[in-house]
Specification:
Layout lengths: L1 E6 L6 H20 L9 E6 L4 H14 L4 E3 L4 H18 L3 E2 L17 E2 L5 H14 L5 E6 L2 H15 L7 E5 L10 H9 L4 E5 L2 H13 L6 E3 L5 H15 L7 E5 L10 H13 L19 H18 L7 H10 L25 E6 L2 E5 L5
Parallel strand pairs: 1-2, 1-3, 3-4, 4-5, 6-7, 6-8, 8-9, 9-10
Antiparallel strand pairs: 10-11, 11-12
Length: about 375
């Protein structure tokens, strides 16, 4: 069986696609090594869209028309999937093609008309931003600003924060943006100044790791010491690696009051069954770089949140594949997914698809930075 992954394997956001691929690759390799199911092994064909919306539809068409993939898997990013969805829906109506486990929490693939052609695994950005705002307001912080990517991804995050604030009778205190693809070397001092001028008590960042790391750097260097929260897509490990290097160079602390929502548990928590399986699979099967992209991104360690999400997404697909039966078709897999009921892949919380429910998980994990790295908060405490 061949799945197609159109994702960012080059450019300033390559770490997002590479890490998701590393985890999925390890899961599929472990599955294949065990013998597969009904004689089937799973392989991934890759297409690099570089997190460039203009390349997204072409990457999908290449996988569908040239590689003849069974399904699409693990696409990265909102601006890219927005461009890919019309192609996916057209093919879904034609021959049942579907997209499984996109690495984005945005709304377009969760709503009509595109939801019928997509199976999401992760929680949405609305759920992540609701978790953040609920915690901040619960602490008495009411003046909340945002730093978001100036595209469909940032708009989705902005919408989530605004909805969460509106439900509590509040509005954004300040709204700042940056252009997609901005590198760590670029300054965000103008955005920091605008947020400081508004007197924000916290900032929610919705972006990718290079720009968000630059924002944290500039905020702390300017004296803006308020809590900064990022959503899962940022690439928390890559962001932290940039900030740790900056801390060492500048001999100052930049990562205090830095938080991140995640859609999987911490890869450091060996009490969680899927984390045990993930670490074992990564130890045995992890590869550093895929056969796509420009090789510019170098993994900083064996484990990451991005690769754990890729692993969990692959395990969800494999669980459903094992229940589809010998007569595998797209229609049969689709029916198995919608009819499976709750199922457990070791996350400690059940997954479930169904007719009208094409998002398997609702849970959000909240983490913060310590000397050891990202640590999960439980009931507001480490």
């Amino acid at each position: 069986m061949l799945l197609g992954q159109p994702a960012a394997f080059s450019g300033p956001s390559a770490g997002l696609g590479v890490e998701f691929w590393r985890g999925a690759h390890a899961a599929f390799e472990a599955f294949n090594e065990s013998g597969g199911v009904h004689g089937r092994h799973v392989e991934l064909a890759l297409a690099d869209d570089a997190y460039d919306a203009d390349k997204a539809a072409g990457a999908v068409r290449k996988l569908v028309n040239e590689d003849k993939v069974f399904a699409l898997f693990g696409g990265v990013g909102t601006p890219t999937i927005v461009k890919a969805l019309p192609v996916v829906l057209e093919q879904h109506k034609k021959d049942g093609l579907f997209y499984f486990a996109n690495f984005t929490g945005a709304q377009p693939q969760r709503e009509a008309p595109y939801d019928v052609a997509v199976f999401n695994v992760r929680a949405s950005y609305r759920q992540e931003t609701e978790t953040i705002v609920a915690r901040l307001v619960g602490q008495g912080r009411r003046k909340i600003g945002i730093f978001v990517q100036d595209d469909a991804y940032g708009q989705s995050g902005r919408d989530g924060v605004q909805r969460a604030l509106k439900s509590r009778g509040l509005e954004l205190a300040a709204d700042t943006t940056y252009p997609r693809g901005q590198a760590y070397a670029e300054s965000t001092s103008a955005q920091v100044a605008a947020l400081k001028s508004a007197g924000v008590e916290a900032v929610v960042a919705v972006g990718a790791y290079q720009a968000c790391a630059a924002f944290v750097r500039d905020a702390r260097e300017s004296g803006l010491a308020v809590p900064i929260y990022n959503v899962s897509f940022v690439g928390a490990d890559q962001m932290l690696a940039l900030l740790r290097a900056e801390e060492k160079k500048a001999a100052k602390t930049l990562t205090s009051e830095l938080f991140n929502t995640q859609v999987v548990p911490s890869y450091l928590d060996g009490r969680v069954p899927i984390v045990q399986s993930y670490r074992a699979a990564m130890d045995r099967h992890a590869a550093d770089l895929p056969a796509a992209g420009d090789g510019s991104y170098k993994p900083q360690g064996r484990y990451s949140f991005g690769s754990l999400e890729g692993f969990a997404s692959a395990r969800a697909f494999l669980w459903l594949l094992s229940r589809t039966g010998r007569g595998l078709t797209r229609k049969a897999f689709y029916a198995a997914a919608e009819g499976a009921g709750p199922f457990d892949i070791g996350l400690g919380t059940p997954l479930q698809f169904g007719p009208g429910r094409h998002q398997a998980l609702d849970k959000v994990w909240l983490t913060h930075v310590t000397e050891a790295g990202w640590v999960t908060l439980t009931n507001g405490k480490p």
